[in-house]
Amino acid sequence: MKNPSELKDLLSELEETSGGYFVDFITTRGIQAGIIRLHPGEIDTQEPHSADEVYYIIEGNGFINLNYKNHPIKQGTSIFVPAGSEYRFHGNTRDLLIFYALGK
Question: Is position 37 within any domain?
Fold first, then answer.
């Protein structure tokens, strides 16, 4: 874990380590946090998690399908996803950059 983390460094790490989809920058016994970058047309492959989650849209726009209902999202949107919820980001026409944090 690098502390503090710079967004530009995390984006570089995305390209190098995970094919450009997500990277964790905080992983402790109690919390996991990171960045997701979803390119237009890319499938969000996340599965429901056993802990509550928080997402914040850093840039881009599109939709989140949360428990089978679409909600528009854009830069500055925050989203709470209760544990066990079905959800997917989709419908973005340019890169969607998202901060996430969840309990463990």
Answer: yes
Task: Compute the CA torsion angle 94, 68, 80, 58 (nearest 10 deg).
Answer: 0
Place of tokens 């340019």: 94
Under the phi-then-psi rule, with left for phi > 0, alpha for psi from -120 to 50, and beta for the rest, what region is 11?
A: alpha
pLDDT in tens, the chain (104 residues): 666 778 888 877 777 765 668 888 888 999 999 999 999 999 898 899 999 999 999 999 999 999 999 999 999 999 999 999 999 999 999 999 999 999 87
In the chain, the number of structural domains is 1
2 is a domain residue: no
Domain assignment of residue 25, yes or no: yes
Q: What predicted TM-score, i.e. pTM, was given to this entire model? A: 0.87
